[in-house]
């Protein structure tokens, strides 16, 4: 793994903010721009995998275990529960530029192994084995991404601060936080900041013990790249003013929670906040059409039911995600391919 491929994880401790839908659409847009993307579904619910793969194909993929095929993230790391190392998984091709390491409902059973090895990594006589287990997701993703010459790796994770997410985030270069303008989403943000700082510090202690005994390991930086403000879904006809009020709190709360102590010049106008990567509409009227057609909303056609006002919304969605994709690429230093 001599070439390091930038890794991006979308995470908020609060669920229901549209994170998986966001990863799905952004991955597609990056692929359409010519960027080679590897997506890794590390949410044990495997909802992202279900968005990419139809039920029949997904059932065949999971049942492929009987043929000794390593075709999911869990099957790849499963040997580490014994004495082996990860096995490179088969990649599911969504698009020429978009490959997927499929999620697996069994992944949650790997949580206990990661928790156990986190403590053992502080003991010199067991630190080498422990660090191999703890870095498995990162090493697997880097190896798989290198095999397809990917430009970027994107992880999707569940909304919790458990051992699986800890191992993924210590192997993440950049963290993007999806946020809804409500109390619960901001509380999730307040939980995330301290957890990231704690994990960075604890990972450094483990790196100091193992040094270079097991080869390349992630640095554990998990740098905050910014946040994406997702338009709210009205709940019980909540007044728009309440939405605006919570929205105005995001810029300062993001800086505070993520340890950015300099609050000077922070504006309540989210559109002027350099940490805001995008404000995205919900596109709720298009989602059912996209799910039925099994494609992102910005690729819907009239044959899919995107007619009338839907057609304009499809074009707007394309512009929104194209702008977001290009902004992320610029911030992480990945060149946008020149189209011939």
Write the SSE topology.
Layout: E1 7-10, H1 19-32, E2 37-41, H2 47-52, H3 55-63, H4 73-77, E3 92-95, E4 98-101, H5 111-120, H6 127-134, H7 136-147, E5 152-156, H8 163-169, E6 174-180, H9 183-210, E7 223-230, H10 240-257, E8 276-280, H11 287-293, H12 309-332
Parallel strand pairs: 1-5, 1-6, 2-4, 2-5, 6-7, 7-8
Antiparallel strand pairs: 3-4
CATH topology: Rossmann fold
Helix and strand content put the structural class at alpha/beta
Order of the strands making up the biggest sheet: 3-4-2-5-1-6-7-8
For the biggest sheet, the summary is: 8 strands, mixed
Overall morphology: globular
Uncertain segments are: none
What is the radius of gyration? 20 Å
Assign the CATH architecture: 3-Layer(aba) Sandwich
* CATH homologous superfamily label: P-loop containing nucleotide triphosphate hydrolases
Brief summary:
The protein is an alpha/beta fold and 340 residues long. It has helices spanning 19-32, 47-52, 55-63, 73-77, 111-120, 127-134, 136-147, 163-169, 183-210, 240-257, 287-293, 309-332; strands at 7-10, 37-41, 92-95, 98-101, 152-156, 174-180, 223-230, 276-280.
């Amino acid at each position: 793994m001599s070439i390091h491929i930038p890794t991006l994880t979308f995470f908020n401790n609060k669920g229901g903010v549209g994170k998986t839908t966001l990863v799905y659409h952004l991955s597609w847009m990056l692929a359409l721009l010519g960027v080679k993307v590897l997506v890794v579904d590390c949410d044990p619910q495997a909802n992202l995998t279900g968005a990419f793969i139809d039920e029949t194909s997904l059932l065949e993929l999971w049942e492929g275990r009987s043929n000794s095929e390593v075709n999911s993230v869990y099957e790849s790391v499963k040997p580490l529960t014994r004495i082996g190392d990860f096995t490179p998984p088969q990649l599911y091709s969504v698009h020429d530029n978009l490959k997927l390491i499929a999620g697996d409902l069994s992944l949650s059973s790997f949580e206990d192994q990661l928790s156990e090895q986190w403590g053992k990594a502080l003991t010199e006589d067991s630190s080498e084995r422990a660090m191999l287990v703890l870095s498995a997701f990162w090493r697997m993703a880097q190896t798989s991404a290198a095999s397809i010459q990917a430009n970027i790796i994107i992880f999707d994770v569940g909304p919790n601060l458990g051992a699986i997410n800890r191992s993924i985030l210590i192997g993440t270069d950049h963290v993007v936080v999806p946020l809804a303008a409500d109390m619960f989403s901001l509380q999730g943000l307040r939980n995330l900041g301290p957890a990231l700082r704690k994990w960075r510090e604890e990972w450094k202690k483990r790196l100091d013990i193992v040094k270079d005994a097991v080869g390349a390991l992630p640095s554990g930086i998990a740098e905050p790249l910014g946040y994406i403000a997702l338009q709210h879904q009205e709940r019980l006809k909540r007044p728009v003013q309440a939405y605006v009020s919570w929205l105005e709190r995001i810029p300062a709360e993001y800086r505070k929670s993520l340890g950015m102590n300099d609050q000077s010049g922070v504006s309540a106008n989210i559109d002027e906040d350099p940490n805001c990567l995008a404000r995205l509409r919900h596109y709720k009227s298009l989602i059912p059409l996209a799910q039925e057609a099994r494609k992102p909303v910005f690729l819907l056609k009239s044959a899919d039911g995107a007619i009338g006002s839907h057609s304009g919304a499809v074009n707007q969605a394309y512009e929104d995600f194209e702008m977001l994709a290009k902004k992320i690429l610029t911030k992480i230093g990945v060149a946008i391919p020149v189209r011939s």
